[in-house]
Structures are given as structure tokens and as C-alpha cells.
Specification:
GO terms for molecular function: C-C chemokine binding; C-C chemokine receptor activity. The chain has 360 residues and is mostly helical. 70% of the residues lie in helices and 0% in strands. The longest helix is centred in the first third of the chain and has 42 residues.
Length: 360
């Protein structure tokens, strides 16, 4: 009777698939390491970055009555960097999946600030390279409306950055996807209609990175060629501009390259199904790590100002000692003609009129 007895195992006991303890252990270790290194990295970045950018803004506030075009440029960089640094603690808290401090609307706002920092940062670098190159030519040395042109360029930069951010905002499926470090390949393409996530990614890579980088390469190559025949004093702004461009590209190039690979995997998911299934976790981790590396640029920029700008160091030390600050001197000297003399901006007719008035 025992020989003919059949025992039926049902429920969770009727499992034919073996339990992979190594997979669970790997996920737990990955989650644990992520929960440790992300808050640690962001804590250092927030402390150093807020201190450095805060000092930059303090120096600019002391010089508010005599701001130049270059001062306004560094002010905008400092503002977007401070906004990004304020969101990093919430991003670190969101990295811990058990943390429920961040509401969905707040997560979307943090993601929008992350995008605006990238766009405004690279577009401002493009503008300052173009401004320096044009100001070194004979045609634009006595250009009278440099302030007006810069103001229009800044309005265009912020308008384009906000439009690109809004397009990315509307293409998101969930609020958590708005946070930096989210891989597009983790989602499935829509069955019908326009794939707005792919459109947003294409605009980010094309308009927000590839096109500005090409302009930066062309402008920087011309600036370096012209710099060889200049004096040591005129080479200082070139060193600062090249350093800003180099730091930005070193920090954000890995992120954008990873986004490009992620986009290829997203569009070729059916063709590369075997490769995609084997490397999806590595690709998601790469996007998250490179986005964290990109945020380091907000911390490094004040250090570049301190080591490369002699006037900035002088004003900063005077501010820390509570001494009198010289308001008329330029802190950065980015342009060949930082502040064009008034008589250079007058036409021949105005000069003749002034001469006649002086004779009378």
C-alpha cells in the first residue's frame, strides 16, 4: 500500500526551478553598496560645492554695482550649480528604495533642475567661447552693443533649456523616471503613436550635447591658434576658458556616451534581445554612475576660479578679511575687451560732434 501511495506536492513546494541564492545575494550587495556610496559621494559634493559657489556669489554681490558681462556669466553658472547641489541630498535619499521622503512632484522638479543644469551649463560655455573669439577679431573689437547681445543670448539660452526640459518632462512615464540616472532601455517602446521618450533623448543628445560640443571644438581650436602669438597676460582668460570646457566635457562626456549606448539598446531591443537581457543591469548602473560623475562639475568650477583667476583670489581674500573690496577691477578678464572704452563705441559723426563741442 505504501508502494502505490502517491504524494502530491502543491503550493510553494511544487517548484521545479532551483532557487538562485547567488542572484539574491548579488542584488542585496548591489543595493547595499549603492545605498552607501551614493550618499557619501553626494555629501562631499554638496559640502564642497555649496561652500565654493556660495563664496563666488558673495564676491559677486560685493561687486554688484560694477558688474561686467563676464560677472553675469559666472553668476548664472553659480545659480544653476547651487540649484543642482540642493537636489543631490534628495537624490541620495531616493537611491535608497525604502525612503519615502520625496513626493512625485518633487522628484520631477529635481529631474528638471538636473536637465537645466546640463543645458544652461553647456550653452553658456558655447556663448563665452564665441564671445571671446569674436572679441579678439578686428571687426568686433569696438562693438558697442556687447551687453545687449549678451542679454539676448542669455534669454535664448534659458528659453531653449526650458523648452528641452519641458519636452523631457512630458515624455516621462513616472515621477521616479525624472530623476537622473534612469536608463531609457529599461522601458518598453510604445506599441503605437509617437515615442516621446525617444524624441526627448534624441533632442538631448543632438541639440543639448552634440551640436554644442562641435561648436566648442571649432571655437576652442581657433582660440588656441590665436593665443600662441599673444602675451602672457592675454593667455590667462584662454587658460580659464579651456579649463572650464575641459572640466565640463570630462564630467559630462561619459554620461552622454552612456545615454547614446542606452538609446541604441532601446531602439534595437528586438534585434539585440540576447545582448539586452544580459547587460540591462550593467547599463542601468552605468547611467546612474555617470550621472553622478557629471554632477561633480558643479563642485570643480569654483576651484578653477580660485586657482586660475588672480583678481578673484584677491577679492575673495579681502572679503574674508572684511577688508575693502575694489569694485572697478575685473575678476575674470574673459574677453579681450572686457569693458570697451566709451570713445571707441562712438561713430565718426559722433566724434566730430564732440570735437566741435569741445572747441566751442
Amino acid at each position: 500500500m505504501l508502494a502505490t501511495m502517491k504524494v502530491t506536492l502543491d503550493g510553494f513546494l511544487n517548484q521545479s526551478d532551483p532557487y538562485e541564492y547567488e542572484d539574491y545575494q548579488g542584488e542585496e550587495e548591489s543595493f547595499g553598496s549603492k545605498a552607501v556610496w551614493i550618499p557619501l559621494l553626494y555629501s562631499v559634493m554638496v559640502i564642497v560645492g555649496l561652500l565654493g559657489n556660495g563664496l563666488v556669489l558673495a564676491v559677486l554681490v560685493q561687486k554688484a554695482r560694477s558688474w561686467s558681462v563676464s560677472d553675469s556669466f559666472f553668476l548664472q553658472l553659480g545659480v544653476v550649480d547651487i540649484l543642482l547641489l540642493f537636489t543631490l541630498p534628495f537624490y541620495a535619499a531616493h537611491a535608497n528604495e525604502n525612503c519615502g521622503l520625496c513626493s512625485p512632484p518633487f522628484l520631477r522638479m529635481c529631474g528638471a533642475i538636473f536637465k537645466i543644469n546640463i543645458y544652461v551649463g553647456i550653452f553658456l560655455l558655447v556663448w563665452v567661447c564665441l564671445d571671446h573669439y569674436l572679441s579678439s577679431t578686428d571687426t568686433f573689437k569696438c562693438f558697442c552693443h556687447r551687453d545687449s547681445l549678451a542679454f539676448m543670448a542669455w534669454l535664448l539660452i534659458w528659453a531653449v533649456s526650458i523648452v528641452l526640459t519641458v519636452i523631457d518632462w512630458n515624455s516621462l512615464k513616472t515621477a521616479a523616471d525624472s530623476m537622473p540616472g534612469k536608463a531609457l532601455s529599461a522601458h518598453n517602446p510604445p506599441e503605437s503613436g509617437v515615442d516621446w521618450q525617444l524624441v526627448s533623448r534624441a533632442l538631448h543628445l543632438g541639440v543639448g550635447f552634440l551640436l554644442p560640443v562641435l561648436v566648442l571644438i571649432v571655437c576652442c581650436s581657433h582660440i588656441i591658434v590665436r593665443c600662441r602669438s599673444n602675451s602672457q597676460q592675454k593667455k590667462r582668460p584662454v587658460v580659464l576658458i579651456m579649463s572650464l570646457v575641459t572640466v565640463f566635457l570630462l564630467c559630462w562626456m561619459p554620461y552622454n556616451i552612456t545615454l547614446f549606448i542606452d538609446t541604441i539598446c532601446y531602439t534595437s531591443k528586438d534585434i539585440l534581445s540576447k545582448f539586452f537581457s544580459d547587460h540591462i543591469s550593467s547599463l542601468k548602473a552605468a547611467v546612474k554612475i555617470t550621472s553622478s560623475v557629471g554632477c561633480i562639475s558643479a563642485t570643480l568650477r569654483p576651484l578653477l576660479y580660485f586657482f586660475l583667476c588672480r583678481n578673484f583670489r584677491k577679492v575673495l581674500f579681502s572679503l574674508l578679511k572684511c577688508a575693502r573690496v575694489e569694485r572697478g577691477s575685473s575678476l575674470w578678464e574673459l574677453g579681450v575687451v572686457e569693458e570697451a572704452p566709451h570713445d571707441q563705441c562712438q561713430s565718426e559723426e559722433e566724434r566730430k560732434q564732440m570735437t566741435c563741442l569741445q572747441q566751442v
